[in-house]
Write a structure and sequence with these properties.
The complex is a heterodimer of chains A (346) and B (334). Chain A contains 14 helices and two strands. Chain A has helices at 18-23, 28-44, 51-76, 84-102, 106-131, 135-158, 172-180, 193-210, 212-222, 224-229, 234-260, 271-281, 293-312, 320-344, and strands at residues 182-185, 188-191. The two termini of chain A are 16 Å apart. The chains are: A mainly alpha (346), B alpha/beta (334). Chain A binds chain B through residues 47, 50, 52-53, 56, 59-60, 63, 151, 160-162, 165, 256, 259-262, 264-268, 271, 307-308, 311-312, 314, 316-318, 321, and chain B through 61, 83, 85-88, 91-94, 96-98, 100-106, 116, 118-119, 121-122, 182-186, 189. Chain A: InterPro entries: ABC_transp_permease (IPR001851).
Chain lengths: 346, 334
């Protein structure tokens, strides 16, 4: 939104100062929090500032961040997805087992997995818009079904609880390069997921702030009925948002598969909450209509710094969850406070 | 309001007097302190530099088994003048990240479990390149050597299962169920495979949801009710043995309950005859030896096992051994 500056400015349009604009950004509170967490661990953990350590922290953040971006968009659109965690595992399983059973080039499995995962996302969105049930219920059902399917199908097809290795199959090296390679910069290895993550943040920010679809997302999250009344395609937007989460799950799933070439069928449960936490710390409102993609990235970064910082600081990891909970509360309070101040100064 | 306050006062006074008068002459914290005083407290017995060893396991939050492994490792760390760090995550990806974090810290030795070996491969490669010695414990006896670890300390799950099958034969059992409390755990499948291999009778698998005890109990109970010919239940973790005993009572079944692993309750159950036998893999020894072997390697370049896994089990424990072990299980080292 750039107000065109004419010579005699329209007095009815409020001119916001740059500082005020900054205060109005959803991610401001989380950026302050991220700086605080960074300084805290830089001070308390000796090896935290080493390049290798920061690369580990960034990798941890990226594995959460890749999912936190589409989850943030979905939350701005006013919905939840509780199936996001196991969907990552499902995506990896489909890819691996399809390639193995068909003895196909692994890229075929990757493509099939993309279709299947997007279909799961579309199913979530379709069920939601058709049944008018809360997304919490719909995706809880999907979450449980996928958990069962992951275990059941893997056992049925492979006879064990994890998939068979596809590392010796055609196309594996190139797929590994795309999804799970390590780029060396100045003697330190950085995982390619960091690039995927940054790319997703950029694309999502562009969609939110520069396109019509972005306005639709804010509109359906703010007030669905009002949005529908002014001609926003609510159904299409929501289904699209769920497919966005599925796309993130597909990228994460392929990363899991190609970094370890074997997938454990029981994993991923519980991660969906971590993605939601990252989005909320980054300034998304639980009620929808407010938030940003950059914020979710900062939230993921805070999560990565905390989870690995506790290790670098040589603390007992038993306390990790406590810190996480305390930080979630603090970040959300800070966000609320900043938002109030920003609205008061308008 | 005033009346309400009086009632609260009376209630508080009552609670206080009951808690003062109601001291227990058995068990509790006092008994624990007495046990602690009886067992010698360790301090460093060597004058080697203070090395840092990191242990990273695939344990979930609040797992009793891993608590015992950890206390063994800590005891050895005190003795060997080691700064010991422990972290864990049940997600393979997170566990690999924790190993990488330990390598970033430039620790002097790493102890790691290979429950999900493929996920740990690249991290262990990195450790080797960084010149950090690695000892694998508990799971991954097949992969340990290939990944460049010095030694593997643990129990071969299949061999442990076979030992259980043989013990069941000796006890004249004919139809058993193998209770798996964690769907997706390769080690658990191997245990049941081992039992199946040596057991002459019939064996069925029962998958239960290990995170919810009432769920486990009702599932075992239902199974025992539907099939009266079952005469043995094998649980794969110590906490589930007691639950299986309750299920047996509920179903009014004659089946004998046997279990993998040990804890205070299992030792008591063996003593009073509600459990048949337990097969122990001595988790304390796994933690203790891992730290000690890393110390020996750093101090004297010693490696144990001659390129083969060092086995800490299976050890079959019956009623006769239980009495001797009950003190150790209570203090959390067996």
């Amino acid at each position: 939104m750039s107000a065109t500056q004419t010579k005699d400015a329209d007095e009815r349009i409020l001119q916001a100062s740059p500082l005020r604009k900054l205060l109005g950004r959803p991610e401001l509170g989380s950026v302050v929090g991220a700086i605080a967490v960074f300084l805290f661990f830089a001070f308390f953990a000796d090896s935290f500032l080493h390049a290798a350590s920061l690369s580990t922290v960034l990798y941890a953040a990226s594995t959460i961040g890749i999912m936190a971006v589409p989850v943030a968009l979905l939350m701005i659109g006013g919905e939840f997805d509780l199936s996001a965690g196991v969907m990552v595992t499902s995506s990896a399983l489909v890819s691996s087992m399809f390639s193995y059973q068909m003895t196909a080039n692994v890229w075929v499995g990757v493509a099939v997995s993309l279709l299947v995962t997007l279909a799961i996302g579309a199913f979530n969105g379709y069920m939601l818009t058709r049944t008018k049930l809360p997304s919490f219920i719909i995706t809880l059902g999907t979450f449980l079904m996928l958990t069962g399917l992951n275990l059941g199908f893997t056992k049925l097809i492979d006879g064990t609880v994890s998939t068979k290795t596809i590392a010796d199959m055609e196309g594996f090296p190139s797929a590994r390069d795309v999804f799970a390679s390590t780029l060396t910069l100045g003697g330190v290895g950085f995982k390619v997921t960091i690039l995927w993550w940054l790319a997703l943040v950029a694309v999502a920010s562009w969609i939110l702030l520069r396109t019509r679809a972005g306005n639709w997302i804010f509109a359906v999250g703010g007030n669905k009925d009002a949005a529908r009344a002014v001609g926003v395609p609510v159904t299409r937007t929501k289904i699209g948002l769920y497919m966005g989460v599925a796309l993130g799950a597909w990228i994460s799933g392929q990363h899991l598969l190609f970094s370890y070439d074997v997938v454990q069928s029981g994993e991923g449960v519980g991660n969906e909450l971590i993605y939601i936490i990252a989005a909320v710390i980054g300034g998304c409102l639980i009620t929808g209509g407010y938030g940003s993609a950059v914020g979710s990235a900062v939230g993921a970064l805070i999560f990565g710094m905390t989870s690995k910082g506790i290790v670098f600081a040589e603390w007992n990891p038993d306390w990790f969850k406590f810190f996480l909970g305390a930080m979630l509360l603090l970040a959300t309070l800070l966000n609320a406070w900043v938002r109030k101040r920003a609205e008061a100064t308008k | 309001m005033a009346r309400f306050r009086t009632w609260v006062g009376i209630a508080l006074a009552g609670a206080l007097s009951v808690s003062l008068a109601g001291c227990s002459s058995t068990g509790g914290k006092r008994a624990e302190d007495a046990r602690k005083a009886a067992s010698a407290q360790g301090k460093a017995a060597v004058n080697t530099p203070r090395w840092t060893f990191a242990m990273i396991t695939h344990s979930g939050d609040g797992d009793t088994f891993w608590d015992i492994v950890q206390s063994g490792a800590e005891q050895a760390a005190v003795k060997d003048n080691i700064n010991f760090l422990y972290s864990h995550d049940d997600e393979a990806q997170q566990q690999a990240q924790l190993v990488n974090a330990a390598i970033d810290k430039k620790v002097d030795g790493i102890i790691v479990t290979l429950a999900k070996p493929d996920a740990m491969k690249s991290a262990l490669d990195r450790a080797r390149k960084a010149g950090i010695p690695v000892v694998t414990v508990n799971s991954g006896s097949q992969e340990s050597k290939a990944f460049g670890a010095l030694t593997h300390i643990g129990q071969d799950e299949t061999i442990a299962g076979e030992a259980v099958g043989e013990e069941l034969n000796e006890r004249g059992r004919e139809k058993a169920i193998c209770v798996l409390h964690e769907q997706g755990n390769v080690g658990h499948e191997q245990r049941c495979d081992g039992v199946e291999k040596t057991f002459d009778g019939k064996i069925e698998r029962l998958y239960v949801n290990g995170t919810s005890m009432p769920d486990v109990q009702s599932a075992i109970e239902a199974k025992l009710q539907t099939d009266a010919s079952l005469d043995a239940v094998v649980t794969l973790g110590a906490p589930y043995a007691d639950t299986a005993v309750k299920a047996k009572q509920g179903a009014d079944s004659k089946a004998e309950i046997d279990t993998f692993d040990l804890n205070a309750k299992v030792a008591a159950g063996l003593e009073d005859g509600s459990l048949g036998f337990a097969v122990d893999q001595q988790p304390y020894l796994q933690g203790y030896e891992a730290v000690d072997l890393l110390w020996l390697y750093r101090y004297n370049a010693d490696v144990l096992g001659g390129g083969r896994p060092v086995l800490t089990g299976p050890q079959i424990i019956t009623k006769d051994d239980a009495a001797a072990l009950s003190d150790y299980t209570k203090r959390g080292t067996r």
